[in-house]
């Protein structure tokens, strides 16, 4: 219908052969963007990972993209969003016949226990009125051993299971899925995504160790709550922990 058509026309794709970082580019230009706009590049000279790390971004072999979204109710509404994005990504990859996918709280995507993709959400705006979100996604599509040596953890890519995967097709499918899930998230929150997360959570029901600076907490992972906090069954009963500088390991 007419409304759908208008929203489809409103979304644009900014394609670069190379750029510093798709997230940085979108963050600089938030006032010009419409929800659903995408930025894609073949190479990032300063790809950003979570916690100030670098996202290794060699030319031509992977997918580096960002989507812009304007959240009408401010930053507080963004709680748990990274988990929703991880769910969208897994669903999209499954439609390309990739098997063995899983998520690790808060937003790492694993393929057979090795990191396949990452999500970095950056935002700017107010706590309670509208806020600009830039959702960055990096997916390892086809990594050479030499490139992989620069990565500081076990990694995986899509080439083993789907050597002829077309990156443009993947980008189009991902844009559609994300767009649909973000609309769902904006109107109903995380609730609908909880059962899905539970299905693909690699630590669900397992004993884990949460590292928070000097401290650590041991517990059985019981999934997440409606704010995206992780739930652990600890000596003190069921406790919820929010993101930030926390990392999760198997115990
Ligand atoms: C992580 O550390 O797991 C998150 C990595 C996110 C990388 C993507 S690649 C496209 C977008 N632009 C960036 O600079 N980073 C994100």
Walk me through this protein's architecture.
This is Bifunctional ligase/repressor BirA. The chain has two domains: 2-199, BirA Bifunctional Protein, domain 2 (2-Layer Sandwich), CATH 3.30.930; 203-250, SH3 type barrels, CATH 2.30.30.100. 25% of the residues lie in helices and 31% in strands. It is built from six helices and twelve strands. A seven-stranded mixed β-sheet has the order 1-2-3-7-6-5-4, sandwiched between helices. Strands 11-10-9-8-12 form a five-stranded antiparallel β-sheet. The longest helix has 22 residues, at 167-188. Bound molecules: biotin (BTN).
How do the helices and strands line up, and which of them pair or pack?
Elements: H1 2-10, E1 13-16, H2 22-28, E2 38-41, E3 63-71, H3 81-94, E4 101-104, E5 108-111, E6 114-125, E7 131-139, H4 145-148, H5 167-188, H6 194-200, E8 207-212, E9 215-224, E10 230-234, E11 237-241, E12 246-250
Parallel strand pairs: 1-2
Antiparallel strand pairs: 2-3, 3-7, 4-5, 5-6, 6-7, 8-9, 8-12, 9-10, 10-11
Bound molecules: biotin (BTN).
Family: Belongs to the biotin--protein ligase family.
Organism: Shewanella sediminis (strain HAW-EB3)
Binding site for biotin: 21-23, 44, 48-50, 115
């Amino acid at each position: 219908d007419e409304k759908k058509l208008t929203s489809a026309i409103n979304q644009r794709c900014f394609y670069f052969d190379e750029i510093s970082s798709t997230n940085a580019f979108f963050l600089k230009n938030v006032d010009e963007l419409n929800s659903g706009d995408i930025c894609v590049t073949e190479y990032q000279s300063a790809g950003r990972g979570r916690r100030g790390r670098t996202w290794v971004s060699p030319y031509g072999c992977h997918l580096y993209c960002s989507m812009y979204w304007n959240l009408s109710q401010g930053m507080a509404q963004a709680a748990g969003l990274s988990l929703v994005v991880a769910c969208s990504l897994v669903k999209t990859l499954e439609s390309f016949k990739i098997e063995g996918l899983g998520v690790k709280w808060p937003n790492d995507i694993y393929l057979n226990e090795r990191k396949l993709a990452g999500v970095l959400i950056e935002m700017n705006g107010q706590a309670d009125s509208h806020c600009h979100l830039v959702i960055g996604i990096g997916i390892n599509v086809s990594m050479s051993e030499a490139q992989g040596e620069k990565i500081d953890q076990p990694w995986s890519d899509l080439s083993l299971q789907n050597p002829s995967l077309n990156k443009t097709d993947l980008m189009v499918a991902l844009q559609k899925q994300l767009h649909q899930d973000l609309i769902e998230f904006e109107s109903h929150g995380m609730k609908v995504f909880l059962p899905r997360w539970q299905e693909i959570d690699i630590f669900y029901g397992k004993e884990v160790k949460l590292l928070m600076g000097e401290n650590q907490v041991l517990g059985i992972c019981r999934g997440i709550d409606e704010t995206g906090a992780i739930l652990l069954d600890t000596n003190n009963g069921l406790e919820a922990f929010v993101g930030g500088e926390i990392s999760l390991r198997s115990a």
